[in-house]
């Protein structure tokens, strides 16, 4: 993993994966995959409150203001938050604060994978904050019902079979659609939620249909099934796509994933991709975040936090 304390988190290998288009072989044809950025908007989502989701948080890139809002985050441990890694790639630690339970927390460090996935579609970032003597942290527990046993998400396709039924909801801070087109820092974000359908084929069936020969067989969510989308069901007009949006199982009340990518269309809404909180990178970076939080050493030595997490 890479740890940043007081400098821009810009890595050549990250920028390369964000801007390049990869080629992959599938069914004797060349497929182009593009995992785009989420535009932090919602359509017909349900307004909700921090009291219902006390572990939810906002990432703000300012030490003196409520703007600009950058993304949604979730508190998973004392002084540790997770969000989409691409949200924090270019933020400065000493400018960044987390607004959580009506309090601002200064950032101590970022932790992101040093070997990112293509265009960061499966990358979760960690934000470690200065604790301010907070005695009680409202956290959401992590989904622990499945381990990654392969790189093709076969384990995810069989999730219901091995874990049991799950009901999904996505929660995060979003604008209304079209307001997201106005590029000013004062745009207004409200906390909202949306019941969603989750499976391995929903992106592949809907996005591949819109973009011929493109494969998207990765975990995604949407407000309706692919079959309902094909029939222009009104449910499919709902949408919630924000960087760092928290995908939860409402039965177990656990965090299943973090929204990381999407493709935007003006005329209709399409699925959103997310990263499940069970990758090897995730747990490695989580350990690093806890080492940073618990350390009492001095920051006078350049690269100190990085040395804590080096294998």
TrEMBL record:
- Coiled-coil stretches: none
Keyword list (alphabetical) reads:
Signal
Q: Which GO terms describe its molecular function?
A: serine-type endopeptidase activity
- Tell whether Signal is among the UniProt keywords: yes
One Pfam family, please name it: Trypsin
Q: Which GO terms describe its biological process?
A: proteolysis
- Residues of the Peptidase S1 domain: 46-142
Chaperone: present as a keyword of the record?
no
Tell me the leader sequence span. 1-26
Q: What protein does this entry describe?
A: Uncharacterized protein LOC118276565 isoform X2
């Amino acid at each position: 993993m890479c740890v940043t304390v007081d400098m821009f988190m810009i890595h050549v290998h990250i920028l390369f994966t964000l801007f390049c288009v990869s080629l992959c072989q599938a069914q004797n044809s060349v497929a182009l995959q593009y995992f785009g950025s989420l535009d932090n908007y919602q359509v017909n989502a349900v307004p909700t409150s921090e009291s219902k989701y006390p572990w939810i948080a906002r990432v703000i890139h300012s030490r003196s203001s409520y703007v600009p809002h950058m993304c949604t985050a979730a508190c998973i441990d004392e002084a540790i938050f997770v969000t989409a890694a691409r949200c924090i790639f270019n933020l400065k630690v000493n400018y960044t604060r987390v607004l959580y339970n009506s309090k601002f927390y200064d950032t101590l460090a970022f932790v992101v994978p040093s070997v990112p996935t293509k265009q960061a579609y499966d990358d979760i970032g960690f934000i470690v904050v200065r604790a301010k003597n907070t005695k009680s942290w409202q956290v959401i527990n992590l989904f622990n019902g499945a381990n990654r046993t392969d790189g093709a998400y076969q384990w995810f396709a069989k999730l219901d079979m091995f874990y049991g039924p799950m009901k999904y909801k996505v929660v995060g801070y979003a604008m209304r659609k079209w307001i997201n087109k106005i590029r000013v820092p004062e745009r207004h974000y409200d906390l909202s939620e949306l019941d969603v359908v989750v499976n391995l084929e929903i992106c592949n069936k809907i996005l591949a249909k819109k973009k011929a020969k493109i494969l998207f067989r990765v975990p995604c969510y949407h407000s309706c099934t692919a079959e309902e989308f094909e029939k222009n069901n009104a449910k499919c007009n709902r949408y919630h796509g924000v960087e760092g949006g928290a995908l939860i199982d409402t039965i177990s009340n656990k965090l299943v994933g973090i929204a990381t990518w999407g493709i935007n269309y003006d005329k209709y809404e399409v699925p959103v991709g997310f990263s499940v909180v069970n990758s090897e990178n995730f747990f490695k970076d989580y350990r690093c975040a806890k080492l940073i939080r618990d350390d009492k050493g001095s920051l006078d030595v350049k690269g100190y936090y990085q040395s804590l997490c080096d294998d």
